[in-house]
Design brief:
heterodimer, A: 469 residues, alpha/beta, TIM Barrel, four-stranded mixed sheet, B: 210 residues, Rossmann fold, 2 domains, five-stranded parallel sheet, 5 strands
Chain lengths: 469, 210
């Protein structure tokens, strides 16, 4: 199991407010309803007791149907890696952070110029992430332009499987592609049953805001559940555009949409492994631009963890994308503020936490290394003071006394390798040496780390035969 | 593993008792003291220095290893014949007048000791005259000046002037260090070297005596 970090040090809601959001959410699902543009799904909702208007394709959920699904949905979902150290126990206030998608551009490592992403970028980014210890999981980050939509699913999942043993999650582009990916995963697992028991891949099939399920995504969602592969029905409303401008309003709608997908999963298969997927964002009101790294976005995403804890359903959210076009001060403060908030509230599966700038449209290799550092720092915060009588170290203070030093004190020897965050990007040269070496900043140092990783031999972490059948 | 190799291992492990016992046994068996120093104690510290540079060993571990090495040195040093030296060189170290900060100076002193230097630590708030007296008394190869405060940096220049006036400036190499000190400042006041940390100070000291 991956090392455990827990949040719960930050709250946006009190208990009354959580209940109020819940009541309004029930009102939205019962009175407003969700448009479902998929015949099979409409039939299922109808069959299971929802109020379905087939002409309007509108599904309204009685309170009991929602409450039952909340009870039925697993409180803990383990997403597996192909090595045990990468297993993720999602639930409660456990915190894991990983990558997110889906960017269509990447900053070329050598030229720094923006170019379209390819299958090789999927592989290379997976290879880099495999070596970055603070990143817990791999949501496939980029679209392979060379493969095109028809070949995208294989290109994305297979390139990922070859280069990382961390849990792999991604959206899909075609039903055929999704089937191929699951079939290959069954081959790697050994059997359909083994994949169900230890799913090392999972899917994202989102609901559109406001309150609309698109036909294809609904199919992908149903297919995943039926084959026993975990799936998130994430929602990403844009406050001011596709949800209310007010943060509580957007959170209420987000909650309704995310719960609707939880209900859907439990109607398809009671006990299905799903996550409560919330990615509330906002619009820049001056330009209509989409903001993926605003501070309000960070607040809303972090706050949703408290709703997930209220429902006892594991949460998937977003934090750590920057709206900056450059790897700069803006990308630093946007990312750090938002992943720290989501970590502190105890969000289980924080995706988009590494690699993305330009509101999620562009990835950058060195940004993965920089973000791995930030994620490590957030985890250090979550470790907390580890307060104990022993760690107060009174005996050492007494022994060293006034004017001495603690360089070889007992507590120093015991904790020197673990008390402080192992900061790989920190520059330990003095000013003159640093200047002589070309005055590299954190970005340059991060690029060197990327080059070191990419220069290593490919490991081919999965048997090629299992991917070609 | 030979006893000598064990000395190396115990120095690396920072085991004072182990190093002391093994050194005594080697002496009792008739091994030459200079050989024990070269192939055992200093060889161990050379490994430690290498690991420290690669970030495999941390500062406290280096200091503990140095302590273990000195456990052995204390036994063999009195046995050296005239002309043989146990030390890589002698260094006088102190924080300059008006400054009471000493953690940096102490770290440098400990690292130098770890590298086999004899360090005479004059302490803190040491005047230029006291430096002059100490140089006359101990005949060091190197003088190390430390300052943390920008307000006490001029005392470094004072000290250099005093050594000059006393006619002993050429007998020693002078290195300076401390948070506000830079290579530029070191050149300006006529020091022979600037070290940003203990590890650099050790490298420079080795150059000075080679």
């Amino acid at each position: 199991m991956s090392k455990l970090y827990q949040g719960g040090l930050l709250n946006f809601f009190n208990q009354d407010q959580l209940e109020q959001v819940h009541q309004k959410t029930l009102d939205i699902l019962r009175e407003v309803g969700v448009k479902v543009e998929n015949k099979e799904a409409l039939n299922l909702f109808d069959e299971k007791g929802a109020d379905v208007d087939f002409n309007e394709k509108l599904v309204k959920l009685p309170n009991a149907l929602v409450e039952d699904a909340i009870d039925l949905a697993p409180s803990t979902v383990v997403l597996y890696g192909r090595e045990e150290e990468h297993n993720l126990e999602l639930g409660g206030k456990n915190v894991y952070l990983g990558t997110g998608g889906t960017a269509v551009n990447v900053l070329d490592l050598e030229t720094g110029e923006k170019r379209k992403t390819t299958t090789k970028d999927v592989a290379d980014i997976a290879k880099v992430v495999q070596k970055l210890d603070n990143i817990d999981f791999f949501v496939i980050p980029v679209f392979p332009d060379d493969a095109g939509k028809e070949k995208a699913d294989e290109a994305r999942f297979f390139s990922s499987l070859k280069n990382t043993t961390k849990h792999i999650m991604g959206g899909v582009y075609t039903a055929e592609g999704q089937k191929k990916v699951i079939d290959a995963a069954v081959g790697i697992a050994g059997s359909e049953q083994e994949l169900k028991e230890k799913p090392f891949i999972s899917f994202i099939a989102s609901i559109m805001s406001p309150l609309t399920m698109e036909k294809d995504y609904t199919d992908y969602f149903m297919y995943a559940v039926r084959r026993g592969v975990p799936v998130v029905g994430g929602t990403a409303p844009i406050a001011g555009a596709t949800s209310p401008i007010s943060l509580p309003g957007t959170i209420a709608q987000t909650n309704a949409e995310a719960l609707f997908m939880v209900v859907f999963s439990q109607l398809i298969e009671p006990g299905a492994k799903t996550l409560y997927g919330t990615v509330p964002t906002n619009m820049d009101m001056r330009t209509s631009n989409f903001r993926f790294g605003s501070i309000e976005m960070g607040m809303m995403n972090a706050a949703c963890a408290e709703l997930a804890q209220y429902y006892q359903i594991p949460i998937y959210n977003t934090a750590g994308v920057s709206d900056s076009k450059a790897i700069d001060i803006q990308s630093g403060y946007e990312k750090m503020a938002n992943i720290l908030m989501s970590g502190l509230t105890g969000t289980n599966y924080i995706h988009h936490a590494a690699g993305l700038i330009d509101s999620g449209m562009t990835a950058a290799y060195e940004q993965y290394v920089i973000d791995d550092q930030m994620i490590g720092m957030v985890k250090r915060v979550l470790r907390g003071l580890e307060f104990s009588e022993e760690r107060i170290a009174y005996d050492d203070i007494k022994e060293v006394g006034p004017g001495g030093n603690f360089l070889t004190a007992g507590s120093t020897m015991k904790y020197m390798r673990t008390e402080f965050f192992d900061d790989q990007l920190y520059d330990d040269r003095d000013w003159d040496d640093w200047l002589k070496d070309g005055a590299p900043d954190a970005r340059e140092r991060a690029k060197d780390i990327v080059r070191e990783i990419l220069d290593q031999e490919d490991e081919n972490l999965v048997d090629q035969e299992l991917l070609t059948n | 593993m030979s006893k000598m190799e064990k000395v190396v291992e115990e120095v690396i492990a920072g085991n004072v008792d182990g190093v002391t016992e093994l050194t005594q046994e080697l002496v009792d068996e008739g091994t030459k003291p200079s050989q024990i120093i070269k192939e055992g104690l200093v060889a161990g510290m050379d490994v430690v220095g290498g690991r420290f540079k690669k970030n495999e060993m941390f500062v406290p571990e280096v200091l503990i290893s140095a302590k273990a090495m000195h456990g052995g040195m204390d036994i063999v040093k009195p046995l050296l014949t005239e002309g043989e030296s146990s030390s890589a060189g002698t260094v006088i170290m102190a924080t300059v007048e008006g400054d009471l900060h000493d953690i940096g100076k102490n770290l440098v002193a400990m690292m130098l000791e770890g590298a086999g230097f004899e360090v005479v630590d004059l302490g803190v708030d040491v005047t230029a005259d006291e430096f002059v007296e100490a140089v006359k008394e101990h005949q060091p190869d190197i003088v190390g000046l430390s300052a943390l405060l920008t307000t006490t940096m001029p005392a470094m220049e004072e000290t250099l002037k005093s050594l000059e006036e006393a006619g002993i400036r050429d007998q020693v190499k002078v290195m300076v260090g401390g948070a506000p000190v830079s290579e530029g400042f070191a050149n300006e006041i006529g020091a022979d070297g600037y070290a940003a940390d203990g590890s650099t100070a050790t490298d420079i000291a080795r150059e000075f005596v080679s």
